[in-house]
Amino acid sequence: MDGKLAVIGLGSIGSMALWQASRLSDSVTGFEAASPAHGRSAVGGDTRLFRMLYRGVPELYPILERSRDLWAELEAETGQSILTRCGGLSIGTKDGPYIPVLLETARANGAEHEILSREEMAERYPQHNLRADDVAVYDPHAGALRTDRAVTAAVAAAEANGATVHSNTPIDSITETADGVVITSGEKSWTFESVIISSGGWSQRLMPDYLKAATQTKRVFLTWFVAKNGAEFTSENFPVFIRISGDRSMYGAPAVDGVTVKATLDGRGGPTPDADAVPRELTPAEITETIETVTEFFPGLFPNIVRSDAFPDLFTTDGHPLLGRVKEGSRIYCATGFSGGGFKNATGFGEIAAHEALGKRSFDGLAFVRPQRFKTS
Ligand SMILES: Cc1cc2nc3c(=O)[nH]c(=O)nc-3n(C[C@H](O)[C@H](O)[C@H](O)COP(=O)(O)OP(=O)(O)OC[C@H]3O[C@@H](n4cnc5c(N)ncnc54)[C@H](O)[C@@H]3O)c2cc1C
Question: How far is the CA of 33 from the centre of ligand 1 (A)?
């Protein structure tokens, strides 16, 4: 036996699972096909939005609260600044499909929020050009997560706690036996008591058939712009935002590099057959819609895309993650399928995965993320 737990894939979630597992056991090992936080994974693109206001299942809210605490713990433990607490804005048509449901979820969760009229927005956040029937909701706990720093910090914290890390070691196969789980990389093999699959857009290669059928790797792109007046788009003056106004939608973050403002079409993920070969160039249609949207929403940005990129993420057919054992009693645990929204909760999901895979504790109220919801027989 080579150890208690192997974490396969040290990206957004695997790094956090390894960090948490290293607090629980002195016998955990991480395997990463490239290097942790590499730029072609779902860690790429500098930042991810953290926000407590969303539309969706209320069971997610306690995980968000826990994740927020754990981001602060990771910062305290490593001395790294990871979450820029700049607040967040959800903007949309007053009676449209977005804002009323978001408010309903916020009230059900008891989430702190402040409704801002179009006039109040013009005073506080004039960067946003609202439509006549738009309204905004301010989330005081939202912010921008610095992804590369977060993942690097979590892996370093895990190593400081005694975890072993094998970079440039892609795992090719996982076989469960009576004694444990055998994993291989080329000619090498190891046996662990349990494994966590956290290989993001590459996970299908290692997952059982019923989960391959319930998932798809998708390409998600990002675009950045330069401000006419940079001071208006710093994290002091410009919260992260998501906006769905009529037929247009966009989300983004302040200029964390001091120059480029992230402003990206919301919810655009197209299937991609190979996570290693995600097309990085935007299509003419993507460019046109992005520029038209920025021109309407942000008169203070030059409407030229100065930077763009695209990354893989694994999407499930119902849009909820895969967090749990692949079958009852199995030693193989899945922590993947975060469907374009997993980073904000990476610390919370990582903690759940570490505790459950090591058999330390199980969590209730998570039926919506359990892999076995996709089992047909
Ligand atoms: C462009 C974009 C914007 C997004 N915006 C947001 C946002 O604003 N807020 C938010 O909360 N979420 C957002 N998301 C979603 C979030 O980033 C992802 O859900 C999350 O990062 C997925 O993490 P992961 O650990 O599953 O995958 P990854 O971070 O991609 O990690 C997978 C790792 O596994 C490794 N690996 C793969 N195969 C193997 C193998 N066989 N052996 C060993 N290692 C392997 C890879 O090299 C990689 O390092 C966004 C996603 C994208 C792509």
Answer: 13
